[in-house]
Write a structure and sequence with these properties.
Helix 9 (293-299) packs across helix 10 (301-307) and helix 12 runs parallel beside helix 14 (391-400). 32% of the residues lie in helices and 7% in strands. The protein has helices at residues 39-53, 65-78, 102-112, 176-179, 202-207, 226-232, 248-258, 265-271, 293-299, 301-307, 314-320, 340-348, 356-373, 391-400, 418-434, and strands at 56-60, 90-95, 117-122, 128-129, 138-139, 190-193, 217-219, 237-240. The protein contains 15 helices and 8 strands. It holds the Pfam family DUF3440. GO terms for molecular function: transferase activity.
Length: 465
């Protein structure tokens, strides 16, 4: 990798400080308030509103627990009033991701056989993340060139083409989010009901806290560029999250109380002792699912036998996914005197050259956001109390990538209080000064503050860390 991908002067002297960046600051989001009703009733009300205000709706159905809740709520609403009959049979779209448990296929088939469901079962070579290998960052389920290595036989219900989806060359194939744009051609307005829940991540929580009205309805925003963007974004698709405020316990309570069918893969994971937070039915090759790759080997040995040969690097990932090698738990120690920029470049250079600029841009953006908020330096391990940024966090991005932008520096500030973070930051800065670390080593464009504890806001200085 050349220095051009991550040049000197990431944030030059004089960078303006913006303390009111609403697109980034968590304080700009709306506070959580009690709704005065149970989550099931609210989900039904939201779904009814979506069905009333859009020409067409469909459910994005993965076969997991959250899309199960969305599907059943939508079906119950569609049957509840004659005005919703125009949405029956309910359109349900399933993207089969190939490296999934056989129990998921069986469950999807049961749903497809319901008379009030019109299920579209797509087996397309959509672009997926392969976090098992830095040199081969993507894989394509059901790719025709890999047919001999498929994890499962092609389901007989499979749809293997979709108007507008490019099969060749592989580099042109769309991700699932971008393929969604092909499912809503004009002129009708279409809403895609999705099982997105705020409990699952800070980013998802923030996504539904910014707007006071219809905060669960989001305009489809295509991520593709150029020709592909023009092909898939027709400007008439909306995403709706009717169960955004449900907890995991709410999902399983609804399954039990209302007698909904569900994916039996969850039973196998439960019997194997896998905790609720680790129960996933999606492919295990992505950045976050990689931590749970052993679950497939333990719970789904038949599909695992094929998964073990499906993507480059999976053998190493199975053994070392939760180690320093993949940026989990501990991190490599930076050599003394080496600039953090050079240390970051070392790990960036291990990725495929085609994706190095994407990761470098992600790192530059994080640093730029930091210096829009403060003139204070980024430290090796202590997250800055305002931005949450540290070099350790940036090292994780360089090692693992963040292609879906799910890792946010603000998430580093959710475990302790403000006082603790400020004292931790000041203490590490004092040690940095004592060790003679230079601004250049920290990538800081200004002299380091002489008095670290003076940086602590006055009303926090007297409080114990």
């Amino acid at each position: 990798m050349t220095d051009a991908a991550l040049p000197d002067g990431w944030v030059p002297e004089g960078t303006p400080i913006d303390r009111h960046d609403d697109a980034y600051e968590l304080k700009a989001t709306l506070p959580r308030v009690a709704a005065g009703s149970d989550v099931y009733t609210l989900a039904c009300e939201r779904t009814a509103y979506v069905m009333d205000t859009h020409d067409r709706v469909f459910v994005a159905f993965s076969g997991g627990k959250d899309s199960t809740a969305v599907l059943n709520v939508a079906l119950e609403v569609a049957h509840s009033d004659p005005r919703f009959e125009r949405h029956l049979p309910l359109r349900v779209v399933h993207f089969d991701e190939e490296a999934i448990p056989q129990e998921t296929e069986e469950y999807v088939r049961r749903i497809a056989q319901r008379p009030d469901v019109a299920l579209e079962w797509y087996c397309l070579p959509v672009q997926h993340r392969n976090a098992c290998s830095r040199r081969y960052p993507y894989w394509w389920p059901w790719a025709p060139e890999d047919q001999e290595r498929w994890c499962r036989p092609l389901p007989p219900e499979a749809l293997t083409t979709l108007p507008g989806f490019p099969l060749w060359p592989p580099e042109e194939r769309l991700t699932i989010p971008n393929t969604n744009g092909l499912l809503a051609p004009p002129p009708h307005t279409t809403a895609m009901l999705m099982g997105i829940r705020a409990q699952e991540s800070r980013i998802r929580a923030m996504a539904v806290r910014r707007r006071a009205v219809d905060n669960y309805i989001v305009k489809y925003d295509v991520a593709a560029q150029g020709r592909q963007a023009a092909a898939v974004d027709h400007g008439n698709l909306w995403k709706a999250y009717p169960i955004y405020d449900w907890l995991t316990a709410d999902v399983w309570a609804a399954v039990r109380v209302r007698g909904w069918d569900y994916n039996r893969a969850y039973d196998l994971m439960e019997m194997a002792g896998v905790g609720v937070s680790g129960q996933r039915c999606s492919p295990a090759f992505g950045e976050e699912p990689l931590q749970k790759i052993h679950v497939y080997a333990e719970c789904f040995p038949d599909v695992w036998a094929r998964m073990a040969e499906r993507v480059p690097g999976i053998g190493a990932a199975y053994r070392y996914a939760r180690t320093e090698l993949y940026g989990f738990n501990s991190r490599p120690n930076k050599p003394a005197g080496m600039a953090w920029r050079d240390f970051i470049l070392h790990f960036l250079s291990k990725h495929d050259p085609k994706v190095q600029p994407t990761i470098a841009e992600r790192i530059r953006d994080a640093i730029a956001r930091h210096y829009r908020k403060t003139t204070q330096p980024i430290l090796p391990t202590a997250p800055h109390p305002v931005t949450g940024l540290s070099w350790r966090f940036l090292l994780t991005l360089a090692m693992r990538g963040d292609f879906k932008k799910r890792r946010q520096e603000r998430n580093q500030l959710i475990d302790d209080d403000e006082v603790t973070y400020w004292h931790r930051y000041a203490t590490e800065l004092a040690q940095v000064l004592a060790d003679g670390v230079t601004p250049a080593e920290l990538g800081h464009p200004r002299p380091l503050p002489a008095d670290p504890y003076a940086l602590i806001p006055p009303h926090l200085r007297q409080e114990a860390p």
